[in-house]
Specification:
Layout: H1 3-15, E1 24-25, H2 27-34, H3 38-50, E2 54-57, E3 61-64, H4 69-93, H5 95-114, H6 118-137, H7 142-160, H8 166-184, H9 188-209
Antiparallel strand pairs: 1-3, 2-3
């Protein structure tokens, strides 16, 4: 298995909750859990440590990132910097995407309000990430995109450790709709204000959930 595949396997195990925040494990345990060789595990561990998802402690082992208040605050601060900077380009050059994502977000919200099934809530999470991915993609900067993707993994780890309730999903989608409506009409100032509020609320939800 390649280093990238091993990295993705470890990451999936994190998101599945098979590894708990703050847990200590050995290289062999990680390799067995992910179904990879020790060589592939060692290379993947280096990247996971670079992404702040693991910490290697000499003589003690490998520690899974602990989702602390500081971890959450720093992840959301970086998210705010990147996404708020992307709003002007998204509003000016990607109003068609904003309109399409707005329609899909409204559709998922309406279905979720009628039946908050696991499938619909999963679709809600997907459309949530789609907006944030599209937003940062509007900058068209590979360095920004790489930084965003690394931080997105941290944010997904945070979300893994928060109970996903229908109420929280509804609130997040309603906030997205307000942002997207401003983007669709090209109002970058209003969109930035609403996005800033949304990210502040999301960070608070995350902090309350640990």
């Amino acid at each position: 298995m390649s280093r990238i595949s091993a990295y993705e396997s470890f990451r999936d195990r994190l998101f599945a909750g098979d590894l708990k925040p703050g847990q200590f494990v050995t290289q062999r345990e990680l390799a067995e859990l992910a179904g990879v060789s020790l060589g592939s595990a060692r290379e993947a561990i280096q990247r996971l440590e670079h992404d702040s998802l693991l910490k290697v402690h000499p003589q003690r082992g490998i520690q899974v990132a602990d989702v602390t208040l500081r971890f959450i605050r720093e992840a959301f601060q970086l998210r705010s910097i990147l996404e708020l900077a992307a709003i002007p380009d998204y509003c000016e050059f990607h109003q068609d995407k904003a309109e399409a994502t707005l329609r899909d977000t409204n559709d998922v919200l309406q279905r979720a309000q009628k039946e908050a099934s696991a499938e619909v809530l999963s679709q809600a999470v997907d459309v949530d990430w789609r907006f944030h991915d599209e937003l940062v993609g509007a900058i068209n900067n590979e360095l920004v995109e790489e930084t965003y993707q690394i931080n997105a993994v941290r944010l997904r780890l945070i979300r893994t450790n928060i109970r996903l309730s229908a109420k929280r999903v509804f609130g997040a989608l309603e906030e997205h709709i307000a942002i997207l409506e401003a983007c669709a009409r090209g109002d970058a100032e209003a969109a930035q204000s609403k996005l800033s509020d949304h990210l502040s609320v999301a960070m608070q939800r995350a902090m309350e959930g640990i």
